Amino acid sequence: MSELDPLSPAVFAILFSLAGGERHGYAMMKDARTPEGGGVIMGPGTLYGTLDRLMRDGLVAEAGHSDDQRRRYYRLTDTGRAALNAQLMRMAATLSAARNRGLMPAEDHR
């Protein structure tokens, strides 16, 4: 995966969650379920399979363990942040185009 490639909903939700700081798996799954987190419902298999791939691709790294040795924490790498930023720029461009085409209301800047 190149940092410039579009991200799947699960990958986006994980990277977006980790942009807020180090997280363990359950926290990422909770973040992803929220509307602002993407509204993605992931089970443990999807989450940990995706995390393995993201670590292999250098977008995410293990951050260490908490006091509870069963919980592994993860963090966003610089490459992961670049991939997330590229996706956010694509999303912003799409939203701008949608507004220009009258598909969405203009932003209200009160």
Describe this structure in words.
This protein is mainly α and 110 residues long. The chain has one domain: Arc Repressor Mutant, subunit A. The protein is built from four helices and three strands, in the order H-E-H-H-E-E-H. It has a three-stranded antiparallel sheet with strand order 1-3-2. A hairpin with a 6-residue loop joins strand 2 and strand 3. Helix 1 crosses helix 2. The protein is elongated. It starts with 8 loop residues before the first helix and ends in a 10-residue tail after the last helix. The mean pLDDT is 89.
CATH superfamily: Winged helix-like DNA-binding domain superfamily/Winged helix DNA-binding domain
User: What summary fits the major beta sheet?
Assistant: 3 strands, antiparallel
Which architecture would the CATH scheme give at its second level? Orthogonal Bundle
Helical amount:
40-55%
What would CATH call the class? Mainly Alpha
Low-confidence stretches: none
Order of helices and strands: HEHHEEH
Describe the SSE topology.
Layout: H1 9-18, E1 23-24, H2 25-33, H3 44-56, E2 60-65, E3 72-76, H4 78-100
Helix pairs in contact: 1-2
Describe the structure concisely for a colleague:
The chain has 110 residues and is mostly helical.
Describe this protein with a few key phrases.
single chain, 110 residues, mainly alpha, Arc Repressor Mutant, subunit A, 4 helices, elongated
